[in-house]
Amino acid sequence: MSKLNQLQEIIDSSDNIVFFGGAGVSTESGIPDFRSENGIFESLNKYGKTPENIVSHSYYIDHTAEFFKYYKDNLVFKDAKPNPAHIALAKLEEIGKLKAVVTQNIDGLHQKAGSKTVLELHGSIHRNYCQICGKQYELNSVLESDGIPKCECGGTIKPDVVLYEEPLNSAVLNFSIDYISNADTLIVGGTSLVVYPAASLINYFNGKNLVLINKSETQYDNLASLVINDAIGETFSQIKI
């Protein structure tokens, strides 16, 4: 039986699926992984720092203007569209098979595709708030600002994204653990499972089918029921839902 047929069979026989995705889910929508070789080269060339350095809490505090320039240029892709993976997952939720999407991405493409239960471990570019008064702002307020986006009260408008050196939102993390630990099938896609603590969520899975779909190998491949080394969107485009 081919791997695609195995995946089809697993999805058909499951009624409590959770999907856990990383940057590879969004690259097929034209959003580059800022931690890729090209991303590292570009940030070192332009800023003299690695992407992890620039997208860190301390860099945000010490070099706020430079942070926002990098953020707008490298982390925000307002016109990106959902790809076949996002669309398939939304359909699986609609028919009651998929219970939640847990994502490391901040682009909001799962919601744009129609997914309702989306747990965003690293936050979202679409939520922004004043660090002084707490007023909420949409993405355009950040994009259209000249330099550092400012609230009418004078506070800095910070994107609701989890920077390096910042903890994950404990409520989002706990909900993610609950969904994963109760799932009968966990499909992990577009992540090499090296960014912690998010990658450790796979250890909470107690169900029957662990499916890993990623272009490259991961350290968890030997634990999986099924490993597909291919693009996640391309894979889901061939599944009947």
TrEMBL record:
Alphabetized InterPro entries for the sequence: DHS-like_NAD/FAD-binding_dom, NAD-dep_sirtuin_deacylases, Sirtuin, Sirtuin_cat_small_dom_sf, Sirtuin_class_U, Ssirtuin_cat_dom
Documented EC number(s): 2.3.1.286
Annotated positions binding Zn(2+): C130, C133, C151, C153
Keyword terms of this UniProt record: Cytoplasm, Metal-binding, NAD, Transcription, Transcription regulation, Transferase, Zinc
Zinc recorded as keyword: yes
Gene Ontology molecular function: histone deacetylase activity, NAD-dependent; NAD+ binding; zinc ion binding
Binding-site list for nicotinamide: F34, I106, D107
Reactions accelerated catalytically: N(6)-acetyl-L-lysyl-[protein] + NAD(+) + H2O = 2''-O-acetyl-ADP-D-ribose + nicotinamide + L-lysyl-[protein]
List of catalytic residues: H122 (proton acceptor)
Residues in Deacetylase sirtuin-type domain copies: 1-241
Subcellular location: Cytoplasm
Family: Belongs to the sirtuin family. Class U subfamily.
Function: NAD-dependent protein deacetylase which modulates the activities of several enzymes which are inactive in their acetylated form. Deacetylates the N-terminal lysine residue of Alba, the major archaeal chromatin protein and that, in turn, increases Alba's DNA binding affinity, thereby repressing transcription.
The protein, known as: NAD-dependent protein deacetylase
